[in-house]
Amino acid sequence: MKTRDSFHSRIGFVLAAAGSAIGLGNIWGFPTQAANNGGGAFLFVYLIVTLLLALPALYAEMYIGNQTQKNPIGALQGVCQEKSAKLGKYGGLVGMSGAIMMLSFYTIVAGWMFAHALSPLAELIGLVDISQWLSTSSTSRNLVFTPIFVLLGAAIIHQGVNAGIEKWSARLMPLLLIMLIALIIYILGQPGAEKGLALYLIPDFSQVTNPKLIISAMGQAFFSLSIGVGGMMVYGSYMEKGKGIGKLVLSITALDTCIAFMAGLLIIPAIFVAQEAGVEVFKNNQLIGEGQLIFNILPQLFNSMGSAGLYVASGFFMLLSIAALTSTISSIEVPVAYLVEDKSYSRGKATWWVSFIVLIASMILIAFFDSLFGLVIRLLTTILQPLSCLFYFIVVGWLWKRGNQLRDVSLQKGSKWLPLWGNYLRYVCPVLLSVVFVNVAFLN
Ligand code: PHE
Question: What is the pTM of this model?
């Protein structure tokens, strides 16, 4: 029998999972959402949702993967066996289609990052027209850079879990952190920054009950932690079974939330600095352009640094591209692991098939960008991911071995607080999540 590939160390696992979590969601998604939804109020709700729902969901997802040591579809099918293996399989397939949805738009945005990383370099060597093309959004740019990104992801996934994912994730995350801190220090010294800081850090509590805000914050939290599409389940399955994942889940959540918070600390003040310098960023209280925020204001910030700005810009966008790459590969791994384990594909064949499907999906999005891009993101983050998480809670709390798997196992082990945690996942989480869902139904 073939042995499964796996992570070689706990730290390798944490870095890979953090690499999945930390990505465009933190630096492109979070600040945009926060700026569009009242700043501090959004941050406040985001933190609460992360703690009450997203962290437990991440735990449930990784726990299922770790206990079963299987790809998400096989895993869910297995643990639902006594109730309905079919239900488990469909649940897994829904998650997998979420991974494809994620990839369809994520590779486009990642392509933007990569183009922005190359644009300053083109300028440095005197290719002004090309630099301009690289930094301006266009269909032609999408058609070039999205496939490049899909290929990069495929190349890493092809190498397998340990050789590919673990090494790549470990290398550049610390650099991103250092660069963020340096940029925050720089921006906070610019005129106008204090307005952004106040908007971001002082919540307007009259807004925290706004259902649209709560739903956006929940979607953002689920997206940011990469939960509900099977990526974290598959990573959990590559970790040695039963070592206890509680602390790991906590550190991944803390790292991811910290990076999102810091991105807000950079981007939201930067919006006001740009505004002070005459850039138009808001129209009717909404940010201009779907997802274009950071591309409107960051170049302004880098320009203000003089000639060093070109290098800083290139470095920053390059790091974002790499962060996007480590997130991309966790999603590609979901269908690839399924095809390899359950359908006996070779890793190479599975990788190319999945890349091909992702490429088609992203091309459809590029062709119908205005109507599909935002829609796919909303469908994934506010409907599919929360529904998947609800399913994980129900699986862990109710379906697995006809009972509360977590509580029963922990009772056997004589642990004190795990039964409490089991009950929290069994009763509180599904109810809380459903309450938010009912709100979604009323909103639409
Ligand atoms: N969490 C990643 C980010 O914040 C995105 C992601 C979502 C990755 C779902 C994998 C699965 O950028």
Answer: 0.93
- Digit-coded pLDDT (tens) for 244-260: 888 999 999 999 999 99
User: Rounded to an integer, what distance in angstroms lies between the CA atom of residue 151 and that of residue 114?
Assistant: 13
* Distance, CA of 35 to CA of 284 (rounded, Å): 13
Angstrom distance (rounded) from CA 133 to CA 197: 33
In a mutational test of the pocket of ligand 1, which residue from 109, 229, 294, 327 has the highest number of ligand atoms less than 8 Å from its CB? 327
Protein residue closest via CA to atom 10 of ligand 1: 226
The H-assigned helical ranges of 69-166 are 72-79, 81-124, 128-135, 139-158
For 158-173, b where at least 16 C-beta lie within 10 A, e where not — what string?
bebbbebbbebbbebb
129-172 pLDDT, tens digit each = 999 999 999 999 999 999 999 999 998 888 876 665 666 666 67
Span between the terminal Cα atoms of the chain, in Å: 50
Nearest to 66 by CA among 198, 268, 235: 235
Is ligand 1 within 6 A of the CB of residue 220?
no
CA 386 – ligand 1 centroid, Å: 14
Cβ contacts of residue 7 below 8 Å, gap of 6+? 13, 16, 161, 162, 166, 235, 238, 239
Q: Under DSSP, is residue 347 helix (H, G, I), strand (E, B) or coil? A: helix
How far is 39 from 26, CA to CA, in rounded Å?
A: 15
Q: Which atom of ligand 1 is nearest to the CA of 25?
A: 4
Distance CA 302, CA 438 (A): 44
Q: In this structure, are residues 390 and 398 in contact, taking their beta carbons and an 8 Å threshold? A: no
Which DSSP letter does residue 210 get?
Answer: -
pLDDT digits (tens, 9 = 90+) for 163-189: 656 666 666 778 888 999 999 999 999
**CB contact burial 60-80 (16+ within 10 A = b; e otherwise):** bbbbbbbbbbbbbbbbbbbbb
Q: Which residues, 6+ apart, have CB-to-CB distance to 314 below 8 Å?
A: 117, 118, 119, 120, 121
Q: Is 102 in the pocket of ligand 1 (CB under 6 A)?
A: yes
